[in-house]
Amino acid sequence: MQMNSTERTSIGVPNLDKLMEGGLPKKTINLVSGSCGTGKSILALHFIYHGAKYLNEPGVYVTLEEEPEELIKNMKLFGWDVDELIETKKIVVIKPEIYKFDSLKQIINDTISKIGAKRIVIDPYSVLIGYFSDMYMLRNGLVHLDHDIKKLDCTALIISDIKDGSDILSASGLEEYIVDGVIVLYLMKKPIYPFEAFRALSIRKMRSTHHPLDLYPFEITEQGIKIDGRTLEEMQNSSP
Ligand SMILES: Nc1ncnc2c1ncn2[C@@H]1O[C@H](COP(=O)(O)OP(=O)(O)O)[C@@H](O)[C@H]1O
Ligand SMILES: [Mg+2]
After folding, report:
1. Is pLDDT at 240 greater than 70 in this prediction?
2. Domain-embedded: residue 3
């Protein structure tokens, strides 16, 4: 196999890294798409915590819906020692009041520069769609954001809320084409042997990466996301 020299960084969930040749390619923008309650914010919290705690990659979590306190509480519930990371600005959680996309972009740029962030989350990105008057402006805005984040040497997760069962992976149907990677989270409500209801994810797109397209079941536990690393099919075949 040919060596892939792409620089990568852990997404913060061990068996998930394995599905993407060891991690997210650095300086990429990755969409995390799924309907409500699928675990998008929790995955993004893993990404921010892991980078700050273990990789000396400070992170900015821009929350546009949930309160920062709620997200911080969530991390503590998983048993993560975030207080010191927040005090030393290895993790910054902000909820900016936004009226214009440009001012949000400015806040993001300033915060990244101030703490030397290497990771950024925008959760959810979908609420920003309303700030653009048309698709052309939206595309333009996205391309600029993409450019800024890469220039600032950051790896990004942008979160997209989609409706249950939707084929479109983002609010505008446009983001998925511009970003470098797309991870889709599902909540399967219908029983599929050997599971009743279950959570699963798949990597839909990842630039410079040889990745599977299969469905990988996962759980959200008291310690956060646990992914077995076997496909649904492999788990079905190994069940008694
Ligand atoms: N401590 C926990 N233990 C087990 N499951 C949890 C815990 N915290 C959250 N969850 C599960 O995660 C879901 C929320 O995940 P979240 O990442 O906020 O979803 P979203 O995709 O809407 O951002 C909850 O509905 C719950 O099922
Ligand atoms: Mg969320």
Report:
1. no
2. no
